[in-house]
Amino acid sequence: xxxxxxxxxxxxxxxxxxxxxxxxxxxxxxxxxxxxxxxxxxxxxxxxxxxxxxxxxxxxxxxxxxxxxxxxxxxxxxxxxxxxxxxxxxxxxxxxxxxxxxxxxxxxxxxxxxxxxxxxxxxxxxxxxxxxxxxxxxxxxxxxxxxxxxxxxxxxxxxxxxxxxxxxxxxxxxxxxxxxxxxxxxxxxxxxxxxxxxxxxxxxxxxxxxxxxxxxxxxx
Length: 220
Hints:
Elements: E1 4-8, H1 17-27, E2 31-37, H2 49-58, E3 63-68, H3 76-80, E4 88-91, H4 99-108, E5 112-117, H5 123-126, E6 135-139, H6 154-161, H7 164-168, E7 171-175, H8 180-186, E8 193-196, H9 208-216
Helix pairs in contact: 1-9
């Protein structure tokens, strides 16, 4: 079964960032997930525009940029000019007065438009956005910090989303507390990709290639 694996780079070792990127790339990661936080939309700061530029310069793999910031339309051009065509940009619809305007800028720049859905955000609230995005990042934890516990009621949200995949032409991605059990359960149901952080990928004292190989060889 094919599914994408995305490395959550806020969990990487920043003392050796170039080595981390190269080892993940060599190990077979599909993309690099970049979490940008402003300390207001979420009560934390994570990666910066400088981190994004650095990682973009180190790899030809796609970047998935997750903007956890207020009013992303104000700053979207800063990010778009530092990305390549085909990279993904996720916004949170609640963070913008007119999210479709921001998403159109992403589309016009040749990037892949996406939205991120918080655990407390209903599918119905963002339904119309599915008509203009290609990817939907479903948060299984509250956004803002790594290492949080999985919120089991998110599983019901996925059950609402699976029938919409074909109708709306969207791909579904899992973000937060992603263990092997979640991949084994939700990949067969229709989740297209998983963001990997401290639960499964980072801090395991094993080569990334070995970890990623084990994930791809899960008995699904």
